[in-house]
């Protein structure tokens, strides 16, 4: 069964939805994550419910009254900050979501917690926690007000929204702390910061659960990608695969003996999700 077929089977109720707790697509950027999540969501035969945020400028950050005229609500709606829920949040029943904020840590509702949506209300979303000590617990997620700022904007923005996002796919950075049985690492472009490739491939329990799809700015898949490490290190990674599986040839040169020991494991993607 391919991954799209499996997704449809979950939506039709022919595969236990609980199996979503240990599968995900991992990719470097939020833009790619949003595109994958929207594509998979469109395949689920459930009614879509869309929640829109209420955005405004924080009064304590507004030194000039003209800021509200310079940055209207429509512009604030279009802004996306790291770790911020989007203005337009579309969800369906039985889809996986991830918390973006600590809501109630003693009850297992922490930043990065993955849940399965079981109820989409007007003022609250109910979900089942998929992993960890509180696995199987049903919790309610309220709308909350979140403040965000970025150095290129002369204001702090307040967004009132459910602090969640779909997580069929997640960024490599957001996947830290997750343990998965199966992960598909999609690299439309090479990783761009130190250790990202290592973080991505270390999310799974075994090599059998890891698949790569590497494009590297090309429309055609390839079997080679860059690994970004400290600038003091020189690392050349050559990936070669065959129908039986994969192997790797790696050369790592440490130019400074004072640097900490750094290691990586590298695997090749498979053609199908099984």
UniProtKB/TrEMBL annotation:
Gene3D superfamilies tied to this protein: P-loop containing nucleotide triphosphate hydrolases (3.40.50.300)
InterPro entries noted in UniProt: P-loop_NTPase (IPR027417), Pif1-like_2B_dom (IPR049163)
CC per GO annotation: replication fork
Residue ranges of domain DNA helicase Pif1-like 2B in the record: 74-120
One GO process term, biological-process aspect: DNA replication
Superkingdom as given in the UniProt entry: Eukaryota
Pfam hit, one: Pif1_2B_dom
Protein name: DNA helicase Pif1-like 2B domain-containing protein
């Amino acid at each position: 069964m391919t991954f799209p077929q499996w997704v449809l089977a979950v939506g039709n109720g022919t595969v236990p939805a609980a199996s979503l707790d240990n599968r995900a697509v991992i990719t470097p950027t939020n833009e790619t994550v949003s595109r994958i999540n929207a594509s998979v969501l469109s395949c689920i035969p459930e009614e879509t419910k869309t929640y829109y945020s209420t955005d405004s400028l924080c009064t304590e950050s507004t030194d000039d009254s003209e800021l509200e005229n310079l940055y209207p609500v429509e512009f604030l709606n279009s802004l996306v900050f790291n770790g911020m829920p989007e203005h337009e949040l579309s969800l369906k029943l039985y889809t996986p979501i991830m918390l973006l904020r600590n809501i109630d840590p003693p009850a297992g509702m922490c930043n990065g917690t993955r849940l399965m949506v079981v109820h989409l209300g007007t003022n609250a979303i109910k979900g089942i926690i998929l992993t960890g000590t509180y696995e199987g617990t049903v919790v309610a997620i309220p709308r909350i007000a979140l403040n965000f700022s970025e150095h290129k904007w002369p204001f702090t923005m307040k967004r009132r929204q459910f602090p969640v996002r779909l997580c069929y796919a997640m960024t490599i950075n957001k996947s830290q702390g997750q343990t998965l049985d199966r992960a598909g690492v999609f690299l439309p472009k090479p990783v761009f910061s130190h250790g990202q490739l290592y973080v991505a491939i270390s999310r799974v329990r075994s090599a059998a659960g890891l698949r790569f799809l590497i494009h590297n700015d090309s429309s055609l898949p390839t079997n080679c990608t860059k690994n970004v490490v400290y600038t003091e290190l020189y690392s050349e990674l050559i990936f070669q695969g065959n129908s039986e599986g994969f192997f790797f040839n790696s050369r790592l040169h440490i130019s400074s003996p004072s640097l900490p020991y750094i290691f990586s494991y590298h695997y090749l993607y498979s053609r199908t999700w099984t």
